[in-house]
Amino acid sequence: MKIQNILFALGCGLVSQTLAVISWEEADKKASSFVSDLSEAEKIDIVTGYMNMQGTCVGNIKPNSRKNFKGLCLQDGPAGVRFNEGTSTTWQTGINSAATFNKDLLYKIGKDQGAEFYAKGINVALAPSMNILRAPASGRVWENFGEDPYLSGVCGTQITKGMQDSGVIVSAKHYVANDIEHNREASTSNMDEQTLMEIHVEPFYRTVTEGEAGSVMASYNAVNGVYVVQNKKVLTEILKEGMNFQGFIVSDWWAIHDLEGSFNAGVDMNMPGGKAWGPNYINDSFWGSNISNAIRSGKVSSARLDDAVKRIIRSMYKMNQMGNFPNVNLRAQSMHTETHRQAATESQILLKNDDNVLPLTKKYRKIAVIGKDADKAESCTDTACTNGNIIQGFGSGTTDFTGITDPYSSIKNRASKEGITVVGSISDSANEGANAARDADVAIVFVRATSGEEYIVVDNNKGDRNNLDLWHGGNDLVKSVAAVNKNTIVVIHAPATVNLPFINNVKAIIHAGMPGAESGNAIASVLFGDHNPSGHLPFTWAKREEYCCDVSYPGELPHGGDSKTTYDYKEGLFVGYRWFDKKGTKPIYPFGHGLSYTTFEYSNLSSSLVKSGTEVTGLKATFTVSNTGSVEGATVPMLFLGFPNVSEMGDYPVRNLKAFDKINLKAGESKTVTLEVDQHGLSYYNTNKKKFVVPTGGEYTVYVGKSAGDLPLKVTLKNTQGSNEGSSAGGNNNGDNNGNNNGNNNGSNNTGYDCCADSNARVQYTDESGNWSIENGNWCLICPEKPQCFSISLGYPCCQGNTVVYTDKDGKWGLENGQWCGIADIPSPSTGCPYQTKNGYPVCKTTTTVVYTDSDKWGVENGEWCIMCN
């Protein structure tokens, strides 16, 4: 079989431009100058939408010829440029982008998507979308990045950096807790403050503080009874003040209910301007000229207006949009097929592969491709149709289809290169599918489900899915085919989890998600082994009743104001895999699950805290990843962190994802991988202090593995937050503050600190460098005494290394610097105890219970610490 590198070359040059952005401080000065001579009416034009979505773009800000200001064009969305008439890429959805777990690729997706918006003169891209997948039936889960707030934050940050490096302002959305479609515009998401901050605000925190997002979109719903667009705590206190957000807040379309509440809460731009949809509301706005009257009556301040205008212009200056920005032309050609194909391919998730039925090779002479989902995707308004391959959900986040590849044609073309015959039943008829599969060596059944936005009803599904079953009789289709063909493979195109009543009756399952225009090429490439599957689930796959949360389908829908549909987030912090950990429930497939055509092993985990003075500022974990199979492939090592079990933490999740990377390895290759967690990742939200803090005391537990359900490596670290213990090892704040120790020279090592004079000194701190102690007020590394070797008495030095060149009756000899040297015979822990005491502690005599682990394992005997021999 043909296996190519799963990670396409990223170093061959970026297609899109990187524009010279400036700092927020520089942008602020320019914005202040621009705003200084604006009249009140001109300022109001900049904050109030123009043409009420009846203009060229979905959102428009009026131009100002006096100031040579072109105005603004705002356009959907997460899956590419909406209403582009087939001139731009039909990208994969957000859930597929997350499934790649590839940070470099995520940046490139943003970079190339941004280039397409830029080419069309679009100032603001209404993306990325970062709401949390609480319930898999929720309608817009396909636009977002899954159930985990850290993963969502990384995806949002990388895509934001890429898009803004192309000169386009992102509008990170939907801030915040807009997670269910039913009655979203008149609903309230109720939760405690810690849940709000750690789960739902968290993705926006990273996208704002690390990605420097130029805009954030305020959502339709209320939080704790107050509409987000009127919620000063959420918009001003948390976002603008708490995160030091420098950009502007734009309302979701027609989310504004009033002037005073929204304007004073912190909304900076009213989109699309009118009170409701339609041309009759073009000049009928809650804002507009009403702002002048409100300023005169004292209901709003002119300072608030100045702030809103300045934020908008500041973001434009930062992204270099106030100069020679392209004119609006939504039909301008700009395509990035190669990047999209990589993303579509890397997002294919191999859930099951019994008997290595995949990849398809010449051992199969006849393949049956079955199901209407294998046909070309059907194009319709906002993708509200399902008669073909599902490549996007439905709603405002969709694009005009162009360059579509369908699974059936792609598989047939690829099979012809191997001389394999392909037969098809491109319908959802169970009888026809069984007839096509009966004489085939292998049968591939394509099945589907979809979801979307509330304003569209598809097959009686109002945005949110009514259930998790496959659509169009998918379960019956698979059942019929599997009954006549023992080598049945199922490919699922769906936004998230679907029911799998056939799981034990088929050989392989691939979750293809909603992969965009390259759907056919991507699945063919993975099926035939041209690319080794490396996608991983960004959500937990389980039975509907086992999740923490579900979609509500209220019979009576309040129309807003004080009357709202209530969604209580009773699960708190326990979303997704956290809930399954808490309940001790094993899902069908855990978060992060994804198989490969090769195998990987993880080993040799070591970890340490990084400190500055008394503050814990980070964590590092180093381990080895090995490709133990016969083909090249990529794996995604994930670091989950268990927090200290101390009273201040309360009821806290067993573990949380805090770091990941994607590593490509050739067959037999091994790599040393280091994952880092920053201070924010080591912190929890303290509701008393109203901020994120590192807990005091206890131990952190570091888990490393391939998914939330496969974490073979584990180590615990003493939490030294608030103490001087170990501060020099990571914080670089001792000695002369340059990593140098001014004490006596007691030996050399690679840390920049001296060896302790006493090799049996008491251990004060342990990290990846070894054991540390303090002598004469200075930190020192406890360096083991180098064993004296037999060659000393013979007039030869001891070797520094362990390479044996020659062995005689005296011992083992090496050759270093042109001179013979002896190799010391160091006892191995595997063949006997290498010490009787260490660092002043005795060896455990009877206990085998490990109580604590650093560089060694420790137990307790007679109330005192002892070190384990093995």
Nutshell version of this structure?
This protein is of the alpha/beta class.
Keywords:
Immunoglobulin-like; six-stranded mixed β-sheet; 17 helices; 4 domains; Rossmann fold; 21% strand; 870 residues; TIM Barrel; single chain; 21% helix; alpha/beta
- How many domains, as an integer? 4
Q: How is the CATH topology of the largest domain named?
A: TIM Barrel
Q: Average pLDDT value?
A: 90
Count of alpha/pi helices: 17
Please identify, by name, the CATH architecture of the largest domain: Alpha-Beta Barrel
Structural class: alpha/beta
Could you give the distance between the termini? Answer: 44 Å
Strand order of the largest sheet: 1-2-3-4-6-9
Strand element count: 40
Report the CATH superfamily of the largest domain: Glycoside hydrolase, family 3, N-terminal domain
- From the spread of the alpha carbons, the general shape counts as globular
Strand content: 15-25%
Family: Belongs to the glycosyl hydrolase 3 family.
Function: Beta-glucosidases are one of a number of cellulolytic enzymes involved in the degradation of cellulosic biomass. Catalyzes the last step releasing glucose from the inhibitory cellobiose.
Signal peptide: 1-20
Keywords: Carbohydrate metabolism, Glycosidase, Hydrolase, Polysaccharide degradation, Repeat, Secreted, Signal
